[in-house]
Specification:
The chain has 314 residues and is an alpha+beta fold. Helices cover 46% and strands 14% of the residues. The protein has two domains: 149 residues, no CATH class; 106 residues, Jelly Rolls.
Length: 314
Amino acid sequence: MAPTIPAFATAVPAAVAELSGSLAAPLPLGQVAEWFPVWVTPIYTLAVGLLLGAAVAAVLYGVLALLSLVPPLGNLADSPVRGTVASLTLGGLFAIFLCVQFAFGDQGNGQVLILPLVLIGLIMGYAVVYGMWYRTRREWGDVLTEGIMPYLLSTAGVFVVIGLVGIFFVTDPMKFVRSIREVPLINSGTRVVNVEVPGADPTVAPDEAEFHARPIEYDLRALSEVVIETDKTIMLADGGDLSELGRAPTRIDAGEQLTFRYQDRDTPPLPVDSNRLHIQNRELDPATVTFTLVLGIHSLLVSAEVLAEPIFLS
């Protein structure tokens, strides 16, 4: 039988009151300490990014403003034809540099970047020529105070103030800033590390040879590629004793090359904790192990993830 209208009218307020009471109940402090840093991290990261972007833009424009005081440069854009020719010439130089740096040197699919890099180079050319125009220097204040710009800048400023409050809740607020230098924008992001491993004791069997601790500095999550080469047969492990191993050791024969690529979702041959790296030399002569570590563009995102690690509130 369908519920009567009076019964329905009585049940609805009771359900609403119960839901309101549950929402009003305070969350345990432990739960807040777990989810709040994760929630505030993206806001903090964007706020830091806006501040850094504003600082870099101010420095770049300061340089262009100084160049505008030089008559030949500051008056270059007085003629539209001359300004366009100068912009295209300078933009072409920028495009060549970007393509050589990021497209032509890539053995993979770097050629797909040629068109975007050329476009970016041309935009940079126009930005430099017209950014150092003396009229731009004189009218820069009007640009920031007219139209929609004041509203955009005010909104960005409020967002930055709110985001910077997150500095009290993330575990390592400056890690995101420090990680910028690890992103391979100028160089290839490749680091080569050579490690020497003593030869095995001739009195013991190869399987019983010592695992030597050989910690090297790396963040496995930020690496796009790892290449390991050795002139002797070795075993890579995440501990110095069988009881400490979290997984089976990885064998690399003499003269062979082991490659791990992030994009292939391969199982990494190195332990996540770089301090746990141990190497066993299965031959009598000392071994030279070469690690080629290549940072990926996702390394910045990885560093940002670390900011979200929960902290304990006292």
